[in-house]
Write a structure and sequence with these properties.
The chain is mostly helical. It folds into 2 domains: about 100 residues, Rossmann fold, CATH 3.40.50; about 120 residues. The chain contains 5 helices and 5 strands, in the order βααβαβββαα. The strands form 2 sheets. A 3-stranded parallel β-sheet has the order 1-2-3, with no helix packed on it. It has a two-stranded antiparallel ribbon with strand order 4-5. It is elongated and about 145 Å long. The N and C termini lie far apart (about 145 Å).
């Protein structure tokens, strides 16, 4: 058995077809302009249909797949290259300029970003020193320059991350110290208030005792005066 696949098997992966309800031509006929493919295909996964075809191939029932799609999902499903013909090519295939070997695009967007930056810097450096970027004899120089650029970018990113972590730690320590100082100040204020309250209580008790002593002394003097008159 041979399978011939088209856009319909990739719609559930997030890639619109052409004449379906939300197809590219259907929407364009309504005056809605849409992109055929998403900005990146690297993060898309094969659909159940792709995996079913792989299962049929592994069971020996399916001998070959012919596809009009360029999304590379048949390859991502695990279908071997010798059992697949992609009529319009594959948007995810990259070829090494040295060994001419094909490779699928990585799904690591961060590394893609670093590589794009490094390639841009490498081309700028190459042009600035007067080397032709299409000269095959300069491939080694360009590759080495790009590798060094990638390493430098990664080192810079690591340094930035370390600096950010250090700043966060310093901020946390500073906040902790401030909180401890505030707590200590609050404790000192509470202790001072308690001491003042105790002093006020002691002064009140002393005044009360002195007042009582004065009253008792006055009564004693009054009693002595009465006793002397009787005598």
């Amino acid at each position: 058995m041979i399978a011939f696949t088209g856009a319909g098997i990739s719609t559930s992966a997030g890639i619109p077809d052409f004449r379906g309800p939300q197809g590219v031509w259907t929407l364009r006929d309504r005056g809605i302009q849409v992109a055929r493919l998403p900005p990146t295909l690297a993060n898309l996964s094969p659909t159940l249909t792709h995996m079913a075809l792989l299962g049929l191939y592994e069971s020996g029932r399916l001998k070959f797949v012919i596809s009009q799609n360029t999304d590379g999902l048949h390859v991502r499903s695990g279908l071997p290259a010798h059992a697949l013909a992609e009529l319009h090519g594959n948007n995810n295939i990259e070829q090494c300029i040295n060994c001419r070997r094909d490779a699928m695009q990585s799904s690591n967007n961060f590394m893609e970003f670093i590589i794009i930056i490094s390639i841009t810097i490498t081309i700028a450096i190459t042009i600035s020193i007067g080397i032709s970027i299409v000269d095959s004899t300069c491939v080694t120089i360009i590759t080495t320059t790009m590798a060094i650029t990638i390493i430098i970018i990664i080192i810079i990113i690591i340094i930035i991350i370390i600096i950010i972590i250090i700043i966060i730690i310093i901020i946390i320590i500073t906040i902790t110290i401030i909180i401890i100082i505030i707590i200590i100040i609050i404790i000192i204020i509470i202790i001072i208030i308690i001491i003042i309250i105790i002093i006020i209580i002691i002064i009140t008790i002393i005044r009360t005792c002195l007042a009582l002593a004065a009253v008792i002394l006055a009564k004693i003097q009054t009693f002595e005066g009465c006793a002397s008159r009787h005598l």
